[in-house]
Design brief:
The protein is an alpha/beta fold. The chain has 15 helices and twelve strands. The structure holds glutamic acid.
Length: 389
């Protein structure tokens, strides 16, 4: 039996693969500290849990429209209008099975064989793979650790070609935690609009921003460039609802229609009672989001301190999201050369799971998620320290 060629073009998600390995080790009784997948350790908001249970009890167990529960589409649009002054209505929204499905369906809707998609590097592991699954070619824009991983508009624009269909932006960035500066963002969107190139802004971590630098969302740019601006978001990180699998995209009507059509053949609507839970989270769980933000702030300060103490490790403090992406190549030795071997070494010797930087395009780095307790962070970093000294 021969598998489709597209399967040869991609590998398993590294974030999920390491997380699976860590879970297996823990199930076999080994105390692994898991810094791999970005998964909040907080409980989902009680109001969301109660609303989902109530929906089940009330028999809200049937299909909705493929694009999702109309009330939730409207609530998501209203949230973006209120927070960012975006111009969208519920008709501009598709509710999807996590932000990941929104991105995948967008790739299928906009990218064909031989089309190019410009992606900043380091990148979240799934961006290039989804482009490849759609038949397209990722084109990377390198950013540099010495420049704090700033994504410069000129660098993006210099990679646009006749074949470019889409530019994917991710701010705050997974894995670097860096924000795109407003001037760079506006310039990129303007240049893309001139050429009819879609800009997909994955803003999954927009609620987790720590510094004084204000977060610049692409959403308000839809007033001027409504034909080309798409924003993707998710309930997973914002409300600690990863397993619920509820995300969304907001954008122009033709893109919404195409994504809705694809979704009508792919998943149909996301799980109905989960959407009722998400609706309650959006309306009632703001204080939980602020609580989590405070906790992440503390964890970020702690990990920054602990990393600064590790010899051979260089790391800029992230401004957003809940990852650090330290440069660790000075710790490489025989048997632990490169980020894959080094991560394996940390798992075997320190019992700490991290994601190899190569999965994000940077072999000199590893990614550590700090979506876990300060106690786990302290223990994990102590173990890493003992292992590399
Ligand atoms: N997005 C999170 C991460 O980067 C969760 C796992 C995944 O889907 O990649 O760790």
């Amino acid at each position: 039996m021969k598998l489709a060629n597209r399967v040869q073009r991609v590998g398993e998600s590294a974030t999920l693969a390491v997380s699976r390995q860590a879970k297996e080790l823990r199930a076999s009784g080994i105390d692994v500290i898991d810094f791999s997948a970005g998964e909040p350790d907080f409980d989902s908001p009680p109001s969301a849990v109660e609303a989902a249970c109530k929906a089940l009890r009330e028999g809200k167990t049937r299909y909705t429209a493929a694009t999702g529960l109309p009330e939730l589409r409207h609530a998501v649009a209203a949230d973006y209008n209120q927070r960012y002054g975006a111009p969208w209505s519920g008709d501009n929204v598709v509710i999807t099975v996590g932000g990941k499905a929104a991105l995948f369906e967008l790739a299928l809707a906009t990218v064909g064989v031989g089309d190019e998609v410009v992606i900043p590097l380091p990148y979240w592991v799934t961006f290039p793979e989804q482009v490849r699954l759609a038949g397209g070619d990722p084109v990377f824009v390198e950013t540099s650790v010495d420049d704090g991983f700033r994504l410069r508009a000129d660098a993006v624009c210099s990679r646009l070609s006749e074949r470019t269909r889409v530019v994917i932006l991710n701010s705050p960035s997974n894995p670097t935690g860096r924000l795109i500066e407003r001037g760079d963002l506006e310039q990129i969107v303007e240049r893309c609009a001139e050429r009819g190139i879609l800009v997909i802004a994955d803003e999954t971590y927009d609620r987790f921003v720590f510094g004084d630098e204000p977060f610049a969302s692409a959403a308000p740019l839809a007033h001027r460039f409504g034909d080309v601006v798409v924003v993707v978001g998710s309930f997973s990180k914002t409300y600690a609802m990863t397993g619920w699998r509820i995300g969304y995209m907001l954008g122009p009507p033709d893109v919404v229609r195409a994504v809705g059509t694809i979704q009508s053949h792919a998943t149909s609507n996301p799980t109905t009672f989960a959407m009722y839970g998400a609706l309650a989270a959006l309306g009632e769980a703001e204080s939980r989001v602020e609580e989590m933000l405070r906790a992440y702030r503390g964890r970020r300060a702690l990990i920054e301190r602990l990393l600064a103490d590790l010899p051979g490790v260089r790391c800029a403090a992230p401004v957003g999201a809940f990852y650090v992406f330290p440069e660790v190549s000075e710790c490489y030795r025989d048997g632990r050369q490169g980020s894959v071997e080094f991560s394996r070494f940390l798992l075997e010797k320190a019992r700490v799971a991290v994601v190899p930087g190569i999965a994000f395009g940077c072999d000199d780095h590893i990614r550590i998620s700090f979506a876990c307790s300060e106690e786990r962070l302290q223990t994990g970093l102590d173990r890493i320290r003992d292992a590399i000294l």
